[in-house]
């Protein structure tokens, strides 16, 4: 059986400037103030500004880049513009034309680009893709 140590309450000690320990109600008040700021801090971190719209289409970009990696033959270099340094909706064959969901991929028009390879299952992540 494990031996129990005697209970000793923690009391604030006095230092040069008075009490060095914060009282329990003051500590609780400080914690509540900090917790109330948490939603504001999280919101500020997720704001993205763009000249076209405020949105997050990073899932669409990752899905299309996965698709590009599965292409084994792009003899016309049709997917040359497909990289993170170029806005997604300006990529060749990518159409983002929905006022309801700006910046999201609605259509892929790749039929005349002479591409070959496998179709990546990540295209299933293009939740607004219609054709």
TrEMBL record:
> Where do the Leucine-rich repeat-containing N-terminal plant-type domain residues begin and end?
58-97
Listed A to Z, the keywords are:
Leucine-rich repeat, Repeat, Signal
SUPFAM superfamilies, per the entry: L domain-like
Give the protein name, as stated in the record: Leucine-rich repeat-containing N-terminal plant-type domain-containing protein
Superkingdom of source: Eukaryota
PANTHER family linked:
DNA DAMAGE-REPAIR/TOLERATION PROTEIN DRT100 (PTHR48060), L DOMAIN-LIKE PROTEIN (PTHR48060:SF21)
UniProt-listed Pfam families: LRRNT_2
